[in-house]
Amino acid sequence: MTTNPLDDAPLSPFHKKLALFSSGGPFLDGYVLSIIGVAMAQLTGQWHLDATEQGLIGASTLLGILLGAFAGGYLTDLFGRKMLFTIDLVAIIAFSAAQFFVGDVVWLIVLRLLIGVAVGADYPIATSLLAEFAPRKYRGPLLGLYVTMWFVGAAAAYIFGEMLTNLGPDGWRWMLASAALPALLIVLARIGTPESPRWLASRGRIDEANAVLRQVYGEGVSIADLPDEVKENLNVRALLRSGYGGRMLFIAVFWTASIIPLFAVYAFAPAILGALHLDGDMAQWGSALITVMFMVGCVIAVFVVNRMGRRPLMIHSFLWSGVALALLGLFPGAPTAIVMVLFIGYATLIGGTQIMQWVYPNELFPTEIRGSAVGLASSLSRIGAAVGTFLVPVALNSLGIGTTMLIAAGITLFGAAISVFWAPETRGLSLSESASLAGAAAQPAGARKLVRS
After folding, report:
1. Angle at the Cα of 40 (from 37 to 44), degrees rounded to 5?
2. Other C-beta atoms within 10 Å of 381: how many?
3. Predicted structure pTM score
4. CA-to-CA distance for 399 and 421, rounded, in angstroms?
């Protein structure tokens, strides 16, 4: 295993601050997607919204994220990480604040769509920057902690949404505009973040790359210590050709297998709360508590990702969370305590697949196309999220909770199967080693075949 100053650097205050500021994207994603659910309770009655209008308002942000993630990835590969790291959050501030003054459904849908585009764009921008600075020993945990902030944002939305409800009939306006405040704090914190030296080197801007390396790592460190970072000559079309197309297929399949059941469980949560006789204000607090369960699972996965390795964590996370869903499906009439234990078990165990949604895309693609790869993977995941959001209510009404949970279990266990055949092990590799197609030699037989296809 080769060593270099970036991949083998100690975890510094710079890395910790970058990880914290980068996680603003998923925080805002969780916040804006959850706050609309609280706001709709007031907005629906005031504007007399029908089911179609409610659906369009809710789905517009997801559609925006789908569009923004790939666009942001392409642009960050083209223009760099630093500039877009700030611009996308400025857009979120402007569009969120504008929601306070919105007067009709069409403009609200447009603004929610634009917010989604900006939030989606931040994913490939921020994770690419974080992955390219993070030492190999800490890369998995730092990228894993990144995703936990989605659940923090969602829980915050439920809490602040409930507080802002007390402001009267215009409470929903304050709820939707409130996302501008954390976005402003995040953008101020991001000011001064340096450009990725790996991206600068890939563009031939060696002097600038060396200046950043000296700023972050000290004198004596230069891009000459990372000669393998400038050997590739790739573009976004490489995502769909050669070995990188196979890697993208693996990521798209496992991410979809993880996200669809996750949304199914979110749909199942109200039924659990009803069984516990939680309604009104308590339902909001209960939803926040359930969201925290998913966050706890991600945090646990962060602490074991290096100890277990990427591949075993993926397989076990899919397998045992699938078992929990299967038991929920087989025994939907079980006592409330048992249902809650199974629900908590799923929320905790699925955390491994959740953090790998950000670890694998950043580790399996080279600098030139890393942002585009992360963006495309994130966009594809939103298709799965939309499918889950649309089909779960239909399945609950036509098939019932038991069958719906069995379907979710089947999808999750399918994720375990494809992980057995395709998931590579990237623990301990430098970023250039894990992204190189030559690294396939150390992967499982199924993964070797996939990444070379």
Report:
1. 155
2. 23
3. 0.78
4. 32
The DSSP annotation for 404-416 comes to HHHHHHHHHHHHH
Q: Could you report the per-residue pLDDT of 106-163, keeping only the tens digit for each?
A: 999 999 999 999 988 888 888 888 888 888 888 888 888 888 888 888 888 888 888 8
DSSP states along 175-196: HHHTTHHHHHHHHHHHTTPPPP
DSSP 165: G
Q: What does the H/E/C string look like for 65-129?
A: HHHHHHHHHHHHHHHCHHHHHHHHHHHHHHHHHHHHHCCCHHHHHHHHHHHHHHHHHHHHHHHHH
Q: What is the DSSP string of 231-249?
A: -----GGGGGSHHHHHHHH
Q: Which domains does the chain have, with CATH numbers?
A: 1-193 (1.20.1250.20), 233-453 (1.20.1250.20)
| Among the listed residues 193, 242, 228, the one whose alpha carbon sits nearest the alpha carbon of residue 366 | 228
CA pseudo-torsion sign 349, 353, 354, 356: positive
Query: How many CA atoms, within 13 angstroms, populate the side-chain half-sphere of residue 219?
Result: 0
Contacts (Cβ under 8 Å, ≥6 apart) of 72: 84, 88, 120, 121, 122, 123, 124, 125, 371, 375
Give the CA count within 13 Å in the CB-facing half-sphere of 22. 30
Give the orientation angle of helix 136-164 with respect to helix 13-22, to 10 degrees.
Answer: 40
Tokens matching residue 113: 């769509």
